[in-house]
Design brief:
The chain is of the alpha+beta class. It has a single domain, classed as NADH Oxidase, CATH 3.40.109. The protein has an eight-stranded antiparallel β-sheet, sandwiched between helices. Strands 3-7-8 form a three-stranded mixed β-sheet. Strand 9 and strand 10 form a beta hairpin. Helix 2 packs across helix 7, helix 3 runs antiparallel to helix 7 and helix 6 packs across helix 7. The radius of gyration is 19 Å and the shape is globular. The chain binds flavin mononucleotide (FMN). The site of flavin mononucleotide has 9 residues, from loops.
């Protein structure tokens, strides 16, 4: 029901208001950490709009409404990151069908996505990512980009380092949220910057830093406590100070 109300599309501006993110989940934080792996094989199952909403919020959504602070820390609260999502045809289920394929820009403040480029962009993105098959197979690819100037404007050259650190935070948030939802992702850093930028319709001052395919894993990873303890014991035997 929430999805029906929240997923209304304003056709004129092609804005999708996402369902509200959930602030609770079913798996403990420790289990999520233990289960996180880079996942590169996905089933053909689409995601739901609720899942996409949750993934985007976890990556870079607002957690402190007074100042608009987010799920990541940010040097000087400059928040240089911009999140895009590349949607394949029939890959994100809504209450009345599927999201149109294309590239969408996430707005954390209204928790909405704006269609910036319509069409099936996935083959081009796959080629720009050096033909990594997981990019092609995933129902969505979340791109984490940065506007360096937001942070270098305050910190000069050192701001570049801060931006790259922040991307790591956002990427890990996405990994962990995907895991908690029973989904899988992988941080892809190997791609042709200019091509990804043009395919996804990034603005001139936005630089892509990660492409993260997300889908339903064909296999889940799990860690047994016994195996971890044996591993630690074995290493203590091998590497005594
Ligand atoms: C900066 C960075 C770039 C990466 N680039 C790629 C990539 O282009 N393609 C890919 O399949 N995995 C990529 N990875 C994922 C690593 O291969 C993966 O994290 C590593 O093998 C450890 O596996 P785990 O994530 O399951 O612990 C990247 C990871 C990082 C941190």
């Amino acid at each position: 029901m929430a999805e029906t109300i929240a997923a209304q599309e304003n056709q004129e501006h092609a804005v999708i208001y996402l369902p509200p993110p959930k602030l609770d989940g079913r798996i403990s934080f420790e289990k999520v950490l233990a289960m996180r792996r880079s996942i590169r094989e996905y089933s053909s199952e689409p995601l739901t709009l609720n899942e996409l909403s949750q993934l985007l919020w976890a990556t870079y959504g607002v957690t402190e409404p007074k100042h608009g602070f987010k799920t990541t820390p940010s040097a000087g609260a400059t928040f240089p990151l911009v999140i895009y999502v590349i949607v394949k045809p029939n890959s994100v289920r809504t209450s009345n069908g599927f999201l149109d394929p294309g590239s969408y820009r996430y707005d954390p403040y209204t928790h909405s996505i704006l269609l910036v480029k319509r069409g099936n962009l996935i083959r081009e993105l796959y080629k720009a990512c050096l033909r990594q098959a997981w990019v092609l197979r995933a129902p969505v690819n979340i791109i984490i980009a940065a506007i360096y100037e937001r942070t270098t404007g305050y910190y000069g050259e050192r701001g570049r380092r801060y931006v790259i650190m922040e991307v790591g935070h956002a990427s890990q948030n996405l990994y962990l949220q995907a895991t908690a939802l029973g989904l899988g992702t992988v941080a892809v850093g190997a791609f042709k910057d200019e091509q990804v930028k043009s395919i996804a319709g990034l603005r001139t001052d936005e630089e892509p830093l990660y492409v993260m395919p997300v889908g339903k894993p064909t296999r889940r990873y799990s860690l047994k406590e016994k195996d971890l303890l044996e591993y630690i014991e074995e290493n203590r035997r091998l590497y005594q100070p």
